[in-house]
Amino acid sequence: MSEPMTFALLGCGSIAPTHARALAALPSEARLTHCCDIDPDRMKRLAEQFGLQPATWGEVLGNASIEAVTLCTPSGMHAAQAIEALEAGKHVILEKPMDVTVEACDRLLAAAAASDRRVGVISQHRFDPASVVARGVLDRGELGPLIAVDVRVPWYRTQQYYDSGDWRGTWEMDGGGCLMNQGIHTVDLMLWLAGPVERVYARARTAAHRGIEVEDLVCATIEFENGAIGSLTASTAMYPGFPARLGLHGVKGSLIIEGDALHTLAIEGKATVTGKVATAHARQVASGGTRAATEEVDKAAVAPAEEWAWGDAHRTQLDDFIRACREGRAPAIGGPEGRAAVAFIGACYRSAREDRPVGLA
Ligand SMILES: NC(=O)c1ccc[n+]([C@@H]2O[C@H](COP(=O)([O-])OP(=O)(O)OC[C@H]3O[C@@H](n4cnc5c(N)ncnc54)[C@H](O)[C@@H]3O)[C@@H](O)[C@H]2O)c1
Known about the structure:
The structure is a single chain. By secondary structure, this protein is α/β, with parallel strands linked by helices. It is globular and about 60 Å long. The strands form two sheets. The chain has a nine-stranded mixed β-sheet with strand order 14-13-12-11-7-10-9-8-15. The protein has a six-stranded parallel β-sheet with strand order 3-2-1-4-5-6, with helices on both faces. Helix content is 37%, strand content 23%. The site of nicotinamide-adenine-dinucleotide has 23 residues, from loops.
């Protein structure tokens, strides 16, 4: 068995403790040793909380004992910092979005192609039990051909949230508003489960917040390459905020994920599972505890399984990333997947600006 992979973390803000905890929960696979931030107080706080060594970015890049970096910095910095890390011989996993423009994502893809190191993009909800079940149901064709996709991210963020960091709500560093920062999770699931997308026609507004450059409300009509059509609503202005929802509707059935859990799995001629039963069912299937989803739908009575908590999906994705680095394979979510979400969101923004449907060729 190989030694744990040594990590440094860049950007000691709100998502950083999730990474530090996730790596600490993988003691045989990973060892987080250093953290770095331009804000010395934040760096010190994270270092003390997790027993890390504070370091400058230059020290991290020059330290040959650090094999990988995890980037938790503002979104518009991701590609440039990842390229520096690759050039210093590090594997890189970075928070969503991969960066804020397709051009920046392409620069990182080119740097990754020229390197023998790996790039992963955090989009942790692909690892949620409900998402794993959905992927299996679709792979087995159990919903039949998809006809409709329903994407809703009716969230709420306070004015103080946008005022809490200079970079929030700016085109340069946030890259967009409710779609680029928040909706991207459900967009990524949509692309993974129902994509690719052919065309999108979107409307976007800054509907409720002050002093931000970007949208807090987007509605879009989506045409998928498989012939399905979809509707998307994303917001950070829908007080008090509601769970995100992804509905996949085929000619033989429907699967709905809501609030990161399996809400409904209904297949023609079989029992329907909903609510808590569906969620427990998804956890069991994802943990390998049961057979194919639809065999179990017939029974519709499933014992409760382990809780799936915040941080579990980050841990599972980091574990996959480390294994990918060790095995020399692509991680489950790498540069191409990260770019696809940014490209879709960029097409929505362009469509809204130019008031016309935009293709994703
Ligand atoms: N996967 C998720 O569920 C999730 C959740 C929250 C945030 N995120 C992503 O994580 C990233 C960070 O978001 P956040 O909410 O933690 O932001 P934040 O503002 O709380 O933290 C960012 C940190 O980066 C530091 N920083 C800025 N420039 C730097 C530089 N040049 N070098 C080193 N450090 C620098 C800041 O001082 C700050 O401490 C964003 O890309 C965001 O989209 C992902």
